[in-house]
Input
Amino acid sequence: MLKKILCCSLLLIPAQLQAAESAAPSASANSNVNWTVKASWKLPAKPIDFAQSLDNKKVFILTGDAKVHVFTAEGQQLGSVPVATGVSAIDIAPRGEMLYLLNGQDNSYTAMDVSFNQQIDITGAPIRGKQDAPITIVEFSDFQCPFCNRVMPVLEKVLADHPNSVRVAFKHLPLSRIHPQAEPAARAAIAAQKQGKFWEMHDALFSLAESDWTRADVIETAAKKAGLDMARFVTDWNSEETRMKLAKDIMDAQNADVSATPSLFVNGKPVQDRSPEAIEKMITEALAALPPTAQPAPAPAQ
Output
């Protein structure tokens, strides 16, 4: 009942007060209640129910046109999810990654995965594959993460199978709370990139065994294996510019709702299943969505 009252309040207050907001103060002279309209926007159909993510970033509104419309907190519509006629109530997981539907017509409950495409800045990111490939896989990774190590051969196979259509952009997300060497390793890879040897350092770090990460000289050993100028490496490794570049990647991860590694995106679409078959299916769908003029040349027969 409380949710229904809040729903009515949320959806009715903007309509009632939008015209009066500029003329009325935020609190009346004889009231102890203060209020301010933070956002108000029109809906495409009659509202039935709503839910809001725990971080207040997304609003999900079930409407009479048998859709759940998804908005940002500022009212920008991100898209909509079609639902069955008769759905009369919704709820979401705290971060909005699951949508729960109650259908009063056939007395059913449905749970749905929900994900959101992301615009991720890859300016200056290391790229493996054809530089102008139409399909971009963005990888947020942590060098000390064993799961990131396991996804590496999957991505290598994707690049081998799609040499003209797929590229991989690497973004750093060291999970320092559980991987104490991850942040120094990320800075080391950025320092190696300044010498044009990011992927050599990338491969050297991922070739380390789990026990190697306990050694104090593990980063320097990897840098020597990658063939770096060590004096320049140490300077760049500890520079403020390197730390700022790493901070930018971490901020990009936060903006894309990424909190775990490895996290992959195919042309901005989150990868939920990292199996080779699932990624291949996403690539096929992304290629099919390209306009004819952007279709890549077929890969040579092997």
